[in-house]
Amino acid sequence: MSFCLDTYLQQSDNYEIHASKAGFKDCAMIIRFKADDLVYIKPGDEVLGVRVIGIPPIPIGFDHEKGTVFLPYTKPCHGTSVVELPIDEEEVEKIRKLDTGNKK
Amino acid sequence: MKALVLLGCPETPSQTPMAVYVFNKLTKMGYDTTIAANPAASKLVKISDPEGLYNLNLVDLERTLGEINEGDYDLLVGFVHKDAAASFFVTFDQILQTKSLALVFSRDADEIAEFVTMIEESGSNALITSVRAFHNPSPIKVKFDRAIKEFE
Predict the structure, then answer these.
(1) How close, in Å, is residue A98 to chain B by CA atoms?
(2) pLDDT tens for residues B87-113?
């Protein structure tokens, strides 16, 4: 079965929330600040089994030393959060293929 | 023709009557209309039509996001009154690549400007109409009636 972020966040405590109930732009800035490697994707691109919501270009960050990914996670009533969770190399490569290269 | 109406967080009182109003208007224009909302916003709309007179077609917002593809709808109308709602609107707009209308409203003029900028900076071709409103749906109704003429 493929990975699903929504299920993971409900059933695991192995993740960290770096910002919650925030605006998208603030969360994008936090991802850029915290990650040591970034790719930029389009709204609606699928990462870890969910379509990522946001304003393009959407940063997805990696901490290769810790083996984690930073991504924005948006809910209608709770705004956007930055979630950091473990990720394997296969998923990292899938995300790299989505990179638009557009950083503006 | 198919239209999708996106509702945001239901804490804005004017959203619920405007959702029914927009659904009715689009249906009369000939659109097979669907309202996508989270469970709380959906319940507010559903209970507003106890006899089912409007045949409101309500679906779950996040499930719909996971299922839609480019070209599934001919028109997207979004209620944008929070940062998250702007993000949802831009995301649906980018996936569907169809005609779209953003109804931006807030009681705070700075917030309105911020949400309009978010949509514009996304590269969206959406028609954006904005107004200061929170409890009173009339200003949104007036703006919607004017904007929807562009799609008639």
Answers:
(1) 14
(2) 999 999 999 999 999 999 999 999 999
Token output for B2:
């198919």
Contact A77 B11 (CB under 8 A): yes
Domains held by chain B: number: 1
Side chain identity, residue A16: E
**Gap between the Cα atoms of A84 and A70, Å rounded:** 4
- Where are chain A's structural domains? 5-96
Distance CA A18, CA A20 (A): 7
A-chain residues near B65 (CB < 8 A): 44, 51, 53
**Average pLDDT over chain B, rounded to an integer:** 97
Q: Say whether the ipTM exceeds 0.85.
A: yes
CA of A39, closest CA in chain B: separation in Å? 17
The domain of B90 spans: 2-151
